[in-house]
Design goal:
This is B box-type domain-containing protein. Keywords: Coiled coil, Metal-binding, Zinc, Zinc-finger. The chain is an alpha+beta fold. Among the domains are: 71 residues, no CATH class; 44 residues, no CATH class. It has 4 helices and 12 strands. Strands 4-3-5 form a 3-stranded antiparallel sheet. It has a 3-stranded antiparallel sheet with strand order 10-11-12, with helices on one face. A two-stranded antiparallel ribbon has the order 1-2. The radius of gyration is 66 Å and the shape is rod-shaped. The N terminus is likely disordered.
Length: 358
């Protein structure tokens, strides 16, 4: 076993003893000397008064004096022999006696050659370490540059995202403003159309109210005449009364067209939508075929029977029967007309009959 003896090193500090205890300077502990220190050097004439006018800083390096450089180590097993041979097999320094007795078959080398070989290996390892150090430094610099690139790209990406988001928000605001504008336009148009339709309704209502007032007045006059006049006066005014009542009953209330009551809104894909003022006709539907009538004789159902009508001569003519067995009689038709709503008005004898379209 090789024991490495580290000799005690003596440290010498230049000019340090002259300034021990001087104010403004701290004396280091003698047990733990610093690796290097800088201390002011003041000329001796100024030292007693602590003058620092011409003081300067000098790097003081500790000086190590090793006894290994002055003395040749002795062999532990052979104290009288110097260590002057290096065993490559055991990798230790030995003396000549040990090389003959214990290391005769080993690879032996002189100390100068062994030292040179060791220095060469150390130099190679140092070069590799220096290369590794350079690679690490280069890598660190490249990583720092890459980190800066990452920071730049991160900030740039965030800026692009915010910019795009702001653009979309602006587009949405413009789209909302456009929709609001279109909404106000449609609402204004709807309000105008509604007012126009309302005027038409009010006009028709006013006409119907006027006709109602006139009809009530005329009926009141007729009822008063029938209650207060004599039979001679009634018979004398019969034709006039019947004519006036016929005209009165022939008048139909004014109706507003169905299109005035219709208003709708249709949504659009590219725009908000459009107003629909008239009901659009649906797709033509095939008419439902009428069920075929049976050729078998059917029995008629008696609805009403006229027996004793009165002292005056009465007759019934122009009797019609519908397919649902409903019997209609209109007497002598003198005038036939149609109203705007499609109803059939027939003036027959002393009465006026109105047939509504089903």
């Amino acid at each position: 076993m090789m024991v490495v003896v580290v000799p005690q090193a003596s440290v010498t500090w230049r000019g340090w003893s002259d300034y021990r205890g001087t104010a403004g300077f701290r004396t280091p502990s003698p047990a733990v000397p610093p690796a290097h220190a800088s201390r002011p050097v003041v000329p001796k004439p100024c030292a007693p008064v602590g003058c620092c006018k011409n003081a300067g800083f000098v790097w003081e390096w500790p000086v190590y004096k090793s006894k290994l450089r002055e003395e040749v180590p002795k062999c532990d097993e052979h104290p009288d022999q110097n260590l002057n041979v290096y065993c490559n097999s055991c990798e230790q320094v030995i003396c000549t006696t040990c090389s003959v007795l214990d290391h005769e078959k080993h690879s032996l080398t002189g100390l100068p050659e062994a030292v040179e070989k060791c220095k060469k290996k150390v130099t190679e390892m140092v070069q590799k370490s220096e290369k590794r150090k350079t690679e690490l430094s280069t890598t660190i610099e490249e990583m720092s540059k890459s980190r800066k690139d990452l920071d730049t790209m991160f900030a740039y990406t965030q800026k692009k995202i915010s910019k795009k988001a702001q653009q979309e928000i602006t587009k949405l605001k413009q789209e909302v403003a456009k929709i609001k504008k279109e909404e106000q336009k449609l609402l204004k148009e709807t309000s105008t159309i509604y007012k126009d339709k309302l005027k038409a309704f009010e006009a028709v209502q006013a006409t119907n109210r006027k006709e109602l007032t006139q009809t009530e007045h005329k009926l009141e006059e007729v009822n008063q005449l029938m209650n207060q006049a004599s039979c001679y006066e009634i018979l004398e005014l019969q034709q006039k009364l019947l004519h006036n009542l016929s005209e009165l009953s022939g008048k139909q209330p004014q109706q507003v067209p169905d299109r005035l009551t219709f208003m709708d809104f249709e949504e659009g894909d590219r725009s908000l939508g459009r107003l629909i003022l008239e009901e659009e006709p649906k797709a033509a539907e095939k008419p439902t075929p009428r069920p075929p009538r049976s050729c078998v004789k059917e029995k008629w159902e008696l609805k009403s029977e006229a027996t004793n009508i009165g002292v005056t001569q009465t007759y019934i003519s122009h009797v019609a029967a519908l397919f649902n067995n409903k019997i209609l009689g209109c007497g002598y038709p003198r005038g036939i007309t149609f109203t705007s709503s499609g109803d059939l008005v027939v003036a027959a004898g002393e009465s006026v009959q109105v047939y509504h379209r089903v």
